[in-house]
Automatic annotation (TrEMBL):
Protein name: YozD family protein
InterPro entries recorded: YozD
Highest taxon listed in the record's lineage: Bacteria
Amino acid sequence: MREIDVFIDTEEIADFFFKELIRRGYAPTDTELEELADITFEYLLAKSIIDEEMEDI
């Protein structure tokens, strides 16, 4: 199996959750969406689906 670079953007995850939750009849707050995005990111790390790399800014 080859390795590929995948970039996970928690803002993009939050936007995805917002659209999906609204479509399903929920009205999440910005804080709730940020928490869901962070939990999703942490889940992907815990399952070794992704590795966290820090960017040099």
